[in-house]
Design a protein that fits this description.
Low-confidence stretches of chain B: none
Strand order of the largest sheet of chain A: 1-2
Helix content of chain A: 25-40%
Oligomer: heterodimer
Largest interface: A-B, 57 and 83 residues
Distance between the termini of chain B: 13 Å
Shape of chain A: flat
Mean pLDDT of chain A: 91
Number of helices of chain B: 16
Largest sheet of chain B: 11 strands, mixed
Radius of gyration of chain B: 22 Å
Structural class of chain B: alpha/beta
Number of strands of chain A: 2
Number of helices of chain A: 3
Radius of gyration of chain A: 24 Å
Structural class of chain A: mainly alpha
Strand content of chain A: under 5%
CATH class of one domain in chain A: Mainly Alpha
Mean pLDDT of chain B: 96
């Protein structure tokens, strides 16, 4: 029985699984849902901190002043020298294309 | 003592003076692998075999032939008087999270178990260019998701050489173990929340997380793109410095690699300690853990043995003329793990979307109805539980309706964590530290199976290391003693941005000052038994 205090209910969890393009067994789903809720309980520790509205976000720790940044590379076509090796990795290929099942679609009237 | 038990620096000297050959060095390492490693981790590795008892299982793939060919080439160059490179003839292992051309580069995951990389990661390329011998790929937590190496899809997972019933730490467990037992002199690992430093501490070796951007991430299979740092594991600070000389530096293929000059880390090892300011923070002598009984989180003091090791190190630095600055506040340290649960998961959910059964890697062989079905089944069968958990968490906390509550809040907490370090290291501030001295881990290595499955408890193993990843600052873990349970204790130094030379120098000074300590004479259990 889901705990009413849990943020990730079975319904929310199923929605996340769809977004994540996963397919889970029932026992796997229950374990993962339980762990997600435990992790969210840890994350809730962040609510205790007083954060000023104007505190900036840090997308990364180390600053990148201009002298530390690299120059942008030239806008030049620089193809990988061995695209055949990349194509060879494909589970199913046809000449220079990766072959996949049909994409879900609806025919319009 | 065998050749493989020497340091890389000593071995290099012997090679250059032609007292030993690269082939002899390699054979010494290979002999050690044969003695202690046991079967490599494999997909569907099956249950533990009695033959596995007491073995390390560091490797996923041993590349003996290629290494031997390179060793012969190095010997030819040495014989003809040519310069074969800074690390010529030195065997190293690579955490299998790095792409290496024409080798299986698996991330210890079924979803990449058949992926043969068409290119080589920049740090590996640099090591090879320096003449080092790549011995093989070593095991890790799947996609680096963990702190014990247990989550690898390639079983048996690596064991701790000091006690094979315990974890080596993670996610660079194979790296740390391979260096600890003399299978290799050096290993290339990665550190996203402590994944070099924590296994280094657990296995009794040196491990360094460089400043974010110091070492190129090109060719590293990504976990958290704003957090991941490739770095060295070695048996001494000098060896770590040697490896840093080879791998550090800007790379045009990684836009986040910093355009900052690389010093000669070996040359700066002997610099002055006198007058340096080394801080101690009460916030690193408290550990936070989930309260199983009462719910919520509790704080308690660090175990006395861990505290004593750090304070003993402080006394050594004081005797060398450094000033020890107590009571340095780092008040946001305890929020490192909660913030990490959000930031790393958002980044990894995005980074793992590319694994879809289409372009490379595992594709389900079940009949599927359409492309979406292909994605779902391939990812379900290809990923283990830890990547799935991280993807799901990332999807949730990055949802539009929660962005202020979770993601944006966590990024602001990251600013606070960064500011703790800036205040501590500010040359014009109150503390003006050159480095902060802390324990690396809350405890010594835990038994296999004890924590795995509890994702929160596992993540809290990184509580003393993850703040450096949020802030981007460099950190090094080095051995600081052996606990009563016979397991290594790691000590950590954290420094300002791009101060790898300073923390290497301090680690080296500690090693020199404690060289005769009794605990340094002890060896991992698997070597006693070999």
């Amino acid at each position: 029985m889901p705990n009413p205090e849990e943020q990730i209910t079975p319904e929310v969890f199923d929605h996340l699984v769809g977004l994540a393009a996963l397919d889970l067994r029932a026992d796997e789903a229950e374990y993962l849902r339980r762990e997600l809720n435990s992790q969210l309980a840890a994350v809730s520790e962040l609510e205790a901190i007083e954060i000023p509205d104007d505190l900036p976000l840090a997308a990364h720790g180390v600053p990148y002043p201009p002298e530390r940044r690299q120059a942008l590379r030239p806008d030049r076509h620089d193809p990988f020298e061995n695209s055949g090796a990349i194509l060879k990795q494909g589970p199913q290929t046809d000449e220079s294309c990766f072959v996949v099942p049909d994409i879900p679609h609806t025919d319009l009237e | 003592m065998e050749i493989c038990d020497l340091t890389a620096l000593e071995t290099r000297r012997l090679l250059q003076s032609r007292e030993i050959s690269a082939v002899e060095v390699l054979e010494s390492c290979l002999q050690r692998v044969r003695q202690v490693d046991g079967r490599p981790g494999a997909l569907d590795g099956g249950a533990d075999d009695p033959k596995d008892a007491g073995k390390v299982h560091a490797f996923i793939a041993l590349m003996e032939d290629a290494a031997r060919e390179k060793a012969l080439a190095v010997d030819r160059m040495l014989a003809s008087g040519e310069d074969p490179g800074l690390l010529a003839g030195i065997p190293f292992t690579v955490k299998d999270i790095f792409c290496v051309r024409d080798t299986l580069s698996t991330a210890a995951s079924r979803i990449l178990s058949n992926y043969r990389a068409p290119y080589t990661a920049a740090p590996v390329e640099r090591l090879l260019k320096a003449g080092a011998l790549m011995l093989g790929k070593v095991n890790l937590d799947e996609f680096t998701h963990g702190s014990s190496t247990e989550s690898s899809a390639f079983q048996p997972s690596t064991r701790n050489p000091w006690d094979p019933a315990r974890v080596p730490g993670g996610s660079s467990g194979g790296s740390a173990a391979s260096v600890a037992v003399g299978e290799a002199f050096l290993s290339l690992g990665t550190d996203t929340a402590g994944s070099i430093r924590q296994p280094a501490a657990f296995c009794g070796v040196v491990g360094m997380k460089p400043t974010y951007g110091r070492v190129s991430r090109y060719g590293l299979i990504a976990f958290g793109s704003s957090l991941d740092c490739p770095g060295p594991l070695a048996r001494s600070a000098a060896d770590a410095a040697l490896m840093m000389n080879a791998i550090a530096g800007v790379d045009p293929r990684d836009a986040t690699s910093a355009n900052v000059k690389v010093p000669d880390y070996l040359a700066t090892l002997q610099g002055e300690i006198k007058g340096m300011r080394i801080g101690l923070s009460p916030d690193y002598f408290r550990i936070t853990f989930p309260d199983a009984q009462g719910g919520g989180y509790r704080q308690q003091p660090l175990p006395p043995e861990m505290e004593s090791a750090v304070l003993a190190a402080a006394e050594i630095y004081r005797s060398l003329g450094a000033e020890i600055i107590p009571d340095v506040p780092m008040p946001n340290t305890r929020y490192g793990v909660p913030a990490y649960f959000v930031i790393s998961r958002v980044e990894v959910a995005s980074n793992l979307h590319r694994f879809d059964g289409v372009k490379y890697g595992f594709r389900t062989d079940q009949t599927v109805s359409d492309l979406k079905d292909l994605y779902r089944r391939s990812r379900a069968e290809g990923f283990g539980p830890q990547p799935k958990l991280r993807i799901l968490m990332g999807m949730y906390v990055s949802a539009a309706q929660y962005s202020e509550q979770y993601y944006r809040r966590a990024l602001r907490v990251r600013t606070l964590i960064r500011r703790d370090f800036e205040a501590a290291f500010n040359p014009g501030g109150k503390y003006r530290l050159d480095a902060l001295l802390t324990p690396t881990t809350p405890a010594t290595a835990f038994p296999l199976g004890d924590v795995y499955g509890d994702s929160v408890l596992m993540q809290y193993a990184d509580q003393l290391t993850v703040p450096a990843n949020h802030a981007g600052v460099p950190g090094i873990s080095f051995p600081g003693g052996i606990a009563a349970d016979g397991l290594p204790i790691g000590i950590q130094l954290l420094g300002p941005d791009f101060s790898e030379d300073v923390i290497l120098r301090l680690a080296h000074a500690y090693e020199q000052a404690s060289a005769e300590a009794d605990w340094r004479k002890r060896r991992p259990k698997v070597l006693e038994a070999a």
